[in-house]
Each structure stands twice: as structure tokens, then as C-alpha cells.
Amino acid sequence: MSILFELKVTEHFDSAHYLREYPGKCKNVHGHTWYIEVVLQGENLDSTGILIDFSELKGLIKNIIEPFDHQLLNEQVPFEVDNPTSENLARYFYHEIKKKLSDKPVKLVRVTVSESRATAAAYFE
């Protein structure tokens, strides 16, 4: 059995959005502080006992979410086409983060996007 380590990092950004073709209140422009939780796993620690440096991982995530901060998500790629739901945000961030981690000895396990304390959507493969 392999020894696995699991890391979790959370970042956030603020933005507005609305849901196209949605029958409820969320069809109107409204804002959230979105929390992005990223979970990684790996087996091998480096010589300092680190799987991946937390500051490196946080910086990578910040670079991906920065273009969305204080923006209307519906005007940002790919959400000018895809509805900017928590589910679609989780999938988008998962794929973007996975690309950036391709040369690292870690596996991206899951990305969870929370739009409130009570509601979140996760994407994983």
C-alpha cells in the first residue's frame, strides 16, 4: 500500500454573475465571495519534506482566479457562453489548475467552489 499525502488550499475572489434561463432570483445580477478549495494527493516528498510548496500552489491558484476578481463572470471566457454556475466554475478551475500542475509530482483530486457557507459544488475526475 502506498503512503499518500493530501494537501488542501483555499483561495477566494469576489465577483458578480447571473444565471441565464433560470426561473428564480439568480437570474438577476448578484454577487458572491467565491471560495475555491483545491485538494491534491501525492506520494513523494522532496528533501525538505514537502509534497508541493503551499505558497507555490496558492500563487498558481491566484493567477488563475485573478482575471475573475471584481468582474461580471458572464462577460469572462468561458462564461459568456457557459452559465457561471458553481458547477461550471468548479469544472473550469479544475481543468485550468490541472494544466498548471502537469509537471508536478501530484494528482489533482478535487476542486470545490463555494458561493456561501451552505452551498458548494465539487468537480473531480
Automatic annotation (TrEMBL):
InterPro entries linked: 6-PTP_synth/QueD, 6-PTP_synth/QueD_sf
Co-factor requirement: Zn(2+)
Example GO BP: tRNA queuosine(34) biosynthetic process
Entry keyword annotation includes Lyase: yes
Pathways per UniProt: Purine metabolism; 7-cyano-7-deazaguanine biosynthesis
Comment on bound cofactor: Binds 1 zinc ion per subunit.
Gene3D superfamilies xref list: 6-pyruvoyl tetrahydropterin synthase/QueD
SUPFAM superfamilies: Tetrahydrobiopterin biosynthesis enzymes-like
Keywords on record: Lyase, Metal-binding, Queuosine biosynthesis, Zinc
A molecular function (GO) term: metal ion binding
Catalytic activity: 7,8-dihydroneopterin 3'-triphosphate + H2O = 6-carboxy-5,6,7,8-tetrahydropterin + triphosphate + acetaldehyde + 2 H(+)
Acyltransferase among keywords: no
Active site: C26 (proton acceptor), H70 (charge relay system), E115 (charge relay system)
Residues the record lists as binding Zn(2+): H17, H30, H32
Annotated EC: 4.-.-.-
PANTHER family noted in UniProt: 6-CARBOXY-5,6,7,8-TETRAHYDROPTERIN SYNTHASE, PYRUVOYL TETRAHYDROBIOPTERIN SYNTHASE
Family (UniProt): Belongs to the PTPS family. QueD subfamily.
Descriptive protein name: 6-carboxy-5,6,7,8-tetrahydropterin synthase
Source species taxonomy: Bacteria, Bacillati, Bacillota, Clostridia, Eubacteriales
